[in-house]
Amino acid sequence: MAQTAVADSDTGPSLTELARSHGLTKAGRLPRLPEYTRHLWSYRHFIAAFANAKVSASLGSTKLGVVWQLLTPLINAGVYYLIFGVLINTKQDVDNFIAYLCAGVFIFGFTQSVVQAGSQSITANIALIRALHFPRASLPIAVSLVEVRNMIASMIVLVAIVLFTGEPITFQWLLLIPALVLQTIFNTGLALFVARLISKITDIRQLIPYILRIWMYGSAVLYPVTFFAERIHGWQLALVESNPMLIYIELVRHALMENVELATSAPLLWLQAAIWTVLVGFGGYVYFWRGEKGYGRG
Amino acid sequence: MADQRQPTVIADNANIVYRIYGSVAPGANSPLASLKRIMTGKKSAAVREVHAVKGVSFVAYKGEAIGLIGTNGSGKSTLLRAIAGLLPVERGGGIYAAGQPSLLGVNAALMNDLSGERNVELGCLAMGMSPAEVKEQAPGIIEFSGINDRGDFSSLPMKTYSSGMAARLRFSIAAAKKHDVLLIDEALATGDAKFRKRSEQRVRDLRKEAGTVFLVSHSEQSIRDTCERTIWLESGVIRADGLTDDVLKEYETYVNK
């Protein structure tokens, strides 16, 4: 029996009622936030397996394999040492400039790679999204996990550099752990945020390298944080010093090194770091969840 | 009469629109054209909309097997994805389903750099299995796919597989789970004759356990074998919905015109 679509759509409301009376759920309905979070938690093994798979897939074609996770930060530090320590030979009035520089480079690099990989986590996996049903937040979170592994490798290198350049081991070193935990949550929120933003407005991907570069110059990575206070004042200085990356970098330098000049007092820095973590971590998660049902559209 | 049967999938005036970026005619993306667009405030020509499914409505009941036919690009696969909740339906309509329908497709993407074993693990976890279930099922999945028939291929990266082997592995992973509403997209056409026989048997088993089955296929024979009801989609609109024999007869006269 042939029926046309036009005839069918006349019976529209009654079909919806029929669905409701038999307890059918709408396909592509947005789950509530607690329900979504529970669902995401039940996929934790998938997230871990996906993160592991990404690492093995990217290192699988190299001969050295996992050794690259240690080599990459070492080479990175070597390049900066060559340019700033040997060629330009700036000491910038910092006692231990090499350790100071590497802390900045590695901590900023952690967030930078999460943003870069997170921005592609939806668009690069569109075939997987269209084929299987899993909470989409798994993908940016897996990206963040991959970078945590890389970060741990670069922290081993950083600690070696810090020790090698003559810093003493103190109890303050323990502060490194909460600082990195806060930054990891911040990064995950950021990855979720850029993943949705770029899946909607692809043009922004072109801007990301420039945004990251400006952000790096504003985070006192290559020069001491006192550089800003000497040049700008008032609200401009307040703006630069409330930059979350500057705060996380300062916390790590403060934890690992003696005699580091901070922009503000350490307790205030911790408070600011905590606020940024909650704001970006939770905000990015909610923003991503709101778009959950649209990612398959591409 | 319809009230006595239990509906499992209901589509109510479902419209599905793809938005495609960057596929523009030559010249439309030149700086001058872009500037003109910004000045006149017109919508970017870089975004094109494809209205793949237009106002489709139907009710599927428990125990039914429904074939979906239509020429290439008529919106069959898109409709299946929307039933699975993988593609959003436009406002003003909706698709309702009992439980979580699962899409069994041959194009479920896996990671080509990883071994077959790791892909089995990843695929099962992505379908929501627990690690214990994965451990239990993995050997069976690899055996069913038959990729180890000629030596130990399951530990080699998937990029070394032939396209038939990869398709067989993907089908085996997807068919490892039981489903309320099963959506099958051309899955029966994968692999060699030997594997096709095995996979048809597996689909029949899955059908017994599943409430409702949707089958997209270009093979009229497999539609005739599995489905008593058929929906014919053409350019995103339902042309016919009824008994398989009647619909296929109409479809044949249309195609052979």
Automatic annotation (TrEMBL), chain B:
<feature type="domain" description="ABC transporter">
    <location>
        <begin position="35"/>
        <end position="257"/>
    </location>
</feature>
<dbReference type="InterPro" id="IPR015860">
    <property type="entry name" value="ABC_transpr_TagH-like"/>
</dbReference>
<protein>
    <submittedName>
        <fullName>ABC transporter ATP-binding protein</fullName>
    </submittedName>
</protein>
<keyword id="KW-0813">Transport</keyword>
<dbReference type="InterPro" id="IPR003439">
    <property type="entry name" value="ABC_transporter-like_ATP-bd"/>
</dbReference>
<dbReference type="InterPro" id="IPR050683">
    <property type="entry name" value="Bact_Polysacc_Export_ATP-bd"/>
</dbReference>
<dbReference type="Pfam" id="PF00005">
    <property type="entry name" value="ABC_tran"/>
</dbReference>
<dbReference type="InterPro" id="IPR017871">
    <property type="entry name" value="ABC_transporter-like_CS"/>
</dbReference>
<dbReference type="GO" id="GO:0005524">
    <property type="term" value="F:ATP binding"/>
</dbReference>
<dbReference type="InterPro" id="IPR003593">
    <property type="entry name" value="AAA+_ATPase"/>
</dbReference>
<dbReference type="InterPro" id="IPR027417">
    <property type="entry name" value="P-loop_NTPase"/>
</dbReference>
<comment type="similarity">
    <text>Belongs to the ABC transporter superfamily.</text>
</comment>
<keyword id="KW-0547">Nucleotide-binding</keyword>
<keyword id="KW-0067">ATP-binding</keyword>
